[in-house]
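Intended use. Records like the one below are meant for learning the mapping from a protein sequence to its folded structure. Do not use them to infer anything beyond what is encoded.
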Amino acid sequence: GRILARGGDRIAVEEGRPVLDGQALPQFQAGFLVEPFAPQGPRRILPVCGNGAVGLGADCRTRLLTESLPTGRSYRVLDAGLRPLDRIEEVTVPSDRLFLMGDDRDAARDSRLAPAAGGLGLVPEDAVLGRASLVLLSATGRLWDPRGWRLARLLARVQ
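Structure written out for the chain above:
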C-alpha cells in the first residue's frame, strides 16, 4: 500500500479519488492497462476489469491514471470504474497511524477496509518495515514460469 495520510491528516474517498485535508488529489488520464483476464500471481487472483465481464484469456482493459500528492510526487493507479470502496467518509488519522491505499484501487484490500472485513484498517506507524523502490519481478502466473513474466515491469523503479 501507498501511504496517503499520516497522523492528523483528514482523508476521504469521493468517486474513487482520495481527498486529503479537503482537497481532491489531482488525477489525469494516462491510457489503459491491457492484460489477459487470467489468474495472476501466486494466489491466482483474477484481475478487476474496467471493460466489464470478459471471458478467460480476453483483454482486460482498465483505465490508468496519474495521481499526485501535495508533495508533488506522482504515481500511476488503476481505476476500473465506480465500485463500493470508491466512497469513504472522511476520517482523521490518529497520531500514530497511517492510511494506505493500493495502486490497483479496485482490487486492493487497504485502509478503506477494517481488518475484520479483510482490509488493513489504519496501520500503526511502527508496522512499516521499509520503502519499496524497485519491482524485482512481476508475473501474471506463477513466478517460476517465465511465460507469465511482465517484462515491462522487470526491475522497474517504484514511484
